[in-house]
Design a protein that fits this description.
about 130 residues; alpha/beta; Rossmann fold; CheY-like_superfamily
Amino acid sequence: MCHALIVEDNSNFRQSLRETLLARFPFMSIEEAEEGGEALRKLNAFSPEIVFMDIQLPGMNGLELTRSIRAGHAGLVIIVLSSYDLPEYREAARQCGADYFFSKVYNTSQDITGLVDTILSGKPETADGMRITS
């Protein structure tokens, strides 16, 4: 079973992502958080393998939260989500320790399930379009 944590303040997007993931991965256990403090509590209690991290959150933003999580959880896969597919956002996500950058606007539900497929298959190098390389 795979555990995933969705950190997203937009409840409609969070629910849509959850439904998309469960439709393709019914074995996935999913927790949700609306902001950084809740995300950190759930991260420690739930121990997910994959975190979907919105870049803009109330309080601690998703980049700060990614840096904080990465410091204590090196093996965790972090996918930064953003409505803005800008090179500077991708670079900031990479510098904070994110593994992938996913544009909410330019990618489809098939793109996100394809990305998760590659992560779960152990072949993340096949997700070049979204993988953040150094």
